[in-house]
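S.,

Sequence below, as promised.
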Amino acid sequence: MLQLGKVQLLGEEMMILEVDICGLSEVRWDGQGHFTTLDGHTIVYSDRPTQGMSGVTVCIHRKIAGALVGYEPISDRVLIVRLNAKPRNVTLIQVYGPTTAATDEEMERFYQDLSLTVKQLPKRDMLLVMGDFNAKVGRKEPSTMSSAVGLYGLGETNEAGEQLEDFCLQHEMGLANSMFKQHPRWLYIRTSPDDNTRNQIDYISIIVQRWKTSLMNCRTHLTGAVCDTDHQLLVVTVKVRLAKRQNNTEFRL
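The prediction came back faster than expected:
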């Protein structure tokens, strides 16, 4: 996202793919704040004071930008965005989890910050936590599945995946990626540089018992976005009515 023209390209891709809200990880900007693009989309971001290797951003399509209630930059890895909606407001948390090269202390601090953030949010809101967790929860069998991870994950679980599952269980959340039966090509997020391994490391989670029926679908899109990224676009369709968009009861992020 540091290259000239990338913000405009992002807006164009959102319109082509009909994505209303787009979360980005590792944008490598500096500072915290928000701005409106030349096309009228609203971008909220949270990063370090100087350009680094992390950073999180949420881009809100201009047709629903009026639903933005507020936001709170927590760190260069956690960003809260709140939207006015019915029957409940929607709170989005965009994250960028530490890689497997991070220390145990860094990983623990990330999940501690994320858990504390979730606990302080309004309990009545629809909550979605999304982003690059750099974790693999893997494919579960009926005997090993939990309320956090369904049957339709991909690959083998790693240590970071176990931590992500523990976080979801703690907050009664479930990973939408694992709840919908898809062809494997709609499950993987990133292909290794040698083109031999396909991983599922980006996730969108939601409080299962309360909002599961609002989830319409969740899958990757191999056709885009054309934004010079090595990740596939993960899209979830959620049924809810956003302010300033009364005639449509679904949004895609």
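The chain has a mean pLDDT of 85.

Coffee later?
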